[in-house]
Structures are given as structure tokens and as C-alpha cells.
Amino acid sequence: MRVEDRIEHSRFITTIARAATVDDAKAAIGAVRAEFPDATHHCFAYVVGPPGSTNASAAGDAGEPAGTAGRPMLVVLLNSGVGDVVAVVTRYFGGVKLGKGGLARAYSGGVQHALRLLATTERVDHVEVTVVLPYPGVDAVRRVVAREGGRVLHERFEVEVTLVLSLPGDRRDEIERAIVDATSGGARIAR
User: Fold this and answer.
1) CB atoms < 10 A from the CB of 123, how many?
2) Same topology for domains 2-117 and 126-190, yes or no?
């Protein structure tokens, strides 16, 4: 995703990309630098991990006065509700100095502009659980799993039925309770 803003004759080109790892973020920053080798600055910020996570985040001013580019960009990313993301703002200096406040507004504003237009998807981490149960409870478990956004990954029918399920990790406990309730206590769950 890329947007461009012009402020006081300077061009600010904001590029937003997915970055599932720090190496992905660094590669995206390098790719933008290679694409615009004649630009004055390539400031960046990234958040690797869930939205708002600071475990793997960084920012760089790339020659702009300290704290006027990377940090304001990072603050926008941390408060955006988007994770696994890198932003690079490429600046072509237009001859007019913006001052520290003007630079901070320009860089953070470019990231805000790009994020408004960015198509996002919600990522839900799933966990695998194994359920062992009598035959009569299989359909009830399938209904619970489908209703709760899970999937049946594998089924084995022997003396009892073994189902390997993929469940949304953030709701695993409540879904497991629903499975036990739906089978009147007949389901045994192993994590």
C-alpha cells in the first residue's frame, strides 16, 4: 500500500507492508530504499507481533532531527490496531524546512493516511486439541466446532471417536466447555 502527500513542496511517500518478522520489516525497508535511491530520507517504524505489541518494534529517523519521524510513526502504528506491519516514509526535500513539529505531523500524518486506506484482515491464532468421545456425541461436537469458528482436522473411528480440532486460541476454554456440555460430559479433551 502506498500513498503520497505534498507538504511545503516536499514529497512524502508512505509505504505500508506486512512484516511477520523483524527480517521481513528490514527487507521491506531495504526494498523501499532501493526503489527510491535518490530520496532525501527513508524513515521507518515497524510493529512485529499483535497490535500494540512493543516486543519487536523499532523506528528510525534516517537523518531527520531526533524524534521527529520514526517515533511519531511508531506511535501511530502502536495505536492503529494493526500488527505485523512496517511503514516507510520516503521524503524528497522541497526546500522548505518544516520544523520539528511540522516534521512529526508530516511523518505521522503519512502513516495515518496510508492506514486509513489499508485493507486489513483479522488474524486469529488457532490451537489443536484432541477430543475422544463416544459415537453418539460426534454430531454435537461438529456443530459446536462449526458454530465457534473451529475446524475438524482429522477423525479416527475406533472403539471411540477421536477428533483432532483446530480452535480459536483466545476462546479455547469456553469452546472446550461447550463440547463437554454438548456431549453430556462424554468428551475427554487433551491439549
Assistant:
1) 10
2) no
Cell of 170: 483466545
2-117 falls under which CATH superfamily?
Answer: Impact, N-terminal domain (3.30.230.30)
So where are the chain's domains?
2-117, 126-190
Per DSSP, which regions of the chain are E strands?
2-7, 10-18, 41-48, 56-60, 85-92, 126-133, 151-157, 161-168, 188-190
Q: What are 26-79's pLDDT values in tens digits?
A: 999 999 999 999 999 999 999 998 888 888 999 999 999 999 999 999 999 999
Q: What is the pLDDT of residues 155-176, one digit of tens each?
A: 999 999 999 999 998 889 999 9
Topology of domain 126-190, CATH: Alpha-Beta Plaits (3.30.70)
What's the one-letter identity of residue 66?
Answer: A
Q: What pTM was estimated for this model as a whole?
A: 0.69
Give ∠ CA 3-48-2 in degrees, rounded to 5.
Answer: 10
Nearest to 93 by CA among 66, 60, 62, 70: 62
Distance CA 173, CA 166 (A): 13
